[in-house]
Amino acid sequence: MKKIGFDVEILVLIPKLSLLNVFQNNNIKVYKPIFYRNYNNKVIKKFLNFINIIFSFFKVLILLIKNKDTIVHFFLPTSYIVGGLAGWILGHKRMIMSRRSLKNYQERQNFVLNFIEKKLHEKMRFICGNSLAVISQLASIDKIDKDKLYLTYNGIEVKKYKKNYKNFKKKLNIDDQNIIITKVANLIPYKGHADILNACINLKHKNWTLIFVGKIFNETFYNLKDIISKNNISSKVIFLGTREDVSKILSITDIGVLTSHEEGFSNAILEYMASSLPIIASNVGGNREAILHGKNGYIVEPKKIKDITKSIEILIRDKNKRIRFGKKSIEFAENKFSIKQMVRQYEMLYIKTYKS
Question: 137 lies in which domain range?
Fold first, then answer.
């Protein structure tokens, strides 16, 4: 962005600063929340997050008053409400909102916030979606003018996933003969972890290992452990939690799966593609835009456990097909979903916004 004349600054609303060092190492200014220590007490945590949001609102006001030419880009609902209201009050013209998922989250959001969001849509110069599925929903349900809509696919740094870490199997105590099936997703109910677990239980092929990578939430975790215990398969299922070495895990994986009940556009699928994996994914959100059924994987309807099992069985039996699908996956990742292409999409968006 700096190469084409833009200075980038980031304002963080809540205390999740895992990327802070990355930004600082690249001389990107980050406005941090006042309180960014995580507290276990839910009441204290909610109160401090509220203070952070109020601080962020006034910070956006001040920044926009100082520089009326600034392009403000909001990611995720909270930042959109907070920053969008500040921009609306000041009559700021260069505002962009990105929606990263389908509208399902609004069913869990109260009426007032939904109303504010609809009003803010009118004040945006552009509204972005990270898949054609999201764009289509913005047009049909939110009634956004087509001239305002802008597609920005997520991107992946493919070369990061090309390394091979064969010895990683030994660290996880996985038998060399086992087919490794990996699902990268936080343990949230709508991510469909129970679906892939039950599908694996039904497999005729018994030499498999299922790896779950993602933040562990107790309710889903205990439900899965209950299924595992009842079927006596504790040796076949591994929970790795949040990891910084996902590329290593995927390098020993044979099949990538994403059995979500809802999605916008999944970064996990991009990671599978960059790792040259055949993929089985549910027919939700933008999954079908990255996976061509029968070319680099299989698309199954959500919650259809028998179909998931059948797709896994086909890939387990046919190693050549796994290799062929994997080659197509990385080809699609390099041609359509590279970091370079994503950056170019954003550059064009900001240039267009600035000139408008």
Answer: 2-154+339-355
Classify the phi-psi angles of 19: left when phi > 0, otherwise alpha if psi is within -120 to 50, otherwise beta: alpha
φ/ψ region of 67 (left if φ > 0, alpha if ψ in -120 to 50, else beta) reads beta
3-state secondary structure of 201: helix
Along the chain (356 residues), what's the average pLDDT of each consecutive run of 10 residues? 84 73 84 77 85 93 93 94 96 95 66 88 96 94 94 94 84 93 96 97 96 95 97 97 94 97 93 97 95 97 97 97 97 95 95 90
Q: How far apart are CA 187 and CA 62, in angstroms?
A: 38
How many other CB atoms sit within 10 Å of the CB of residue 82?
A: 22
Burial annotation 143-166 (CB, 10 A radius, 16+ → b, else e): ebeeebbbebbbbbebeebeeeee
What is the structure's pLDDT at 353?
A: 95
Give the chain's count of helices (H) and strands (E): 14, 12
Task: Kindly state whether residues 101 and 166 are assigned to the same domain.
Answer: no
147 and 163 together in one domain: no
User: 259 and 270 in contact (C-beta within 8 Å)?
Assistant: no
Domain identity same for 240 and 147: no
Mapped onto helix, strand or coil, the DSSP state of residue 146 is helix
Q: Which amino acid makes up residue 125? A: R
